[in-house]
Amino acid sequence: MVTAMAALPVSSSAQSSTAPSAFEVSDNAKDQGWKNVIINLSWRGNAVSKAELGITKPAEVVYSGTADTPGNIVFNCYNGRPSVSFAILPIDMRGMMTEPPDSRRMKLKRPKISIDGVRIKGEDWIYMPAMKVYRARRIGSFKALYNATILGSDVRVKAGSDNIQLNVPPADDVFKDFGATCGIGRLAKR
Fold first, then answer.
1. Nearest to 26 by CA among 3, 6, 54
2. pLDDT, tens digit, for every residue of 72-114?
3. Radius of gyration of the chain from Cα atoms?
4. pTM for the complete prediction?
5. What is the Cα 166 distance to its own chain's centre?
6. SS (H, E, C) the chain
7. Rounded CA separation 16/3 (Å)
8. Band of the pLDDT at 9, cuts 50, 70, 90?
9. CB within 10 Å: which end of the chain, N or C, has fewer?
10. What is the widest separation between alpha-carbon atoms in the chain?
């Protein structure tokens, strides 16, 4: 078990005053395909309701790539809400979760995302400079990338001068089993 002071933010709000105060990690990592991690988070900050303050809840996470691969992506499910994040540069997503930088700095950015050559509706994403990660603000962004993964689509992102293909492995058993508490995946109660 690992304990730290911050993690990849998983809530869908853009409140910069919200930060996880502690988390624990257990995982089932493989060399290829999707990897899954369960993170137990507790949140602090003035954007957290008193009922949620300091309460530890699990977050289910699946992620792609290694520290050497650009375009890694993270899907997460926390408190019944799904979200997605990606990195343009090579980032070790698991390392980001186990030893995250202690920074709450965020910027709104609007990367241009294309799925199988078709540009999707532009939406603002939260860019976290200390992590070099973009996080979706809207469920529509999550849905587009989740469905692209299920369909095995090519996903490309243009952010500033960077233009990259996201590292989206085929939807394997790890990916298909993800998200039951958010009502998605094959293990979700229908």
1. 3
2. 999 999 889 999 999 999 999 888 876 667 777 899 999 999 9
3. 15
4. 0.80
5. 13
6. CCCCCCCCCCCCCCCCCCEEEEEEEEEECCCCCCEEEEEEEEEECCCCCCCCECCCEEEEEEECCCCCCCCCEEEEEECCEEEEEECCCCCCHHHHHHCCCCCCCCEEECCEEEECCEECCCCCEEEECCCCEEEECCHHHHHHHHHHHHHCCCEEEEECCEEEECCCCCCCHHHHCCCHHHCCCCCCCC
7. 22
8. very low
9. C
10. 45
Amino acid at 110: R
Q: Which of 43, 36, 37 is nearest to 6 (CA)?
A: 43
C-alpha to C-alpha distance for 82 and 138, rounded to whole angstroms: 10
Residue type, 103: S
pLDDT digits (tens, 9 = 90+) for 116-138: 999 998 899 999 998 899 999 99
| Residue 183 tokens, joined | 């009502």
110 vs 151: CA distance, rounded Å: 24
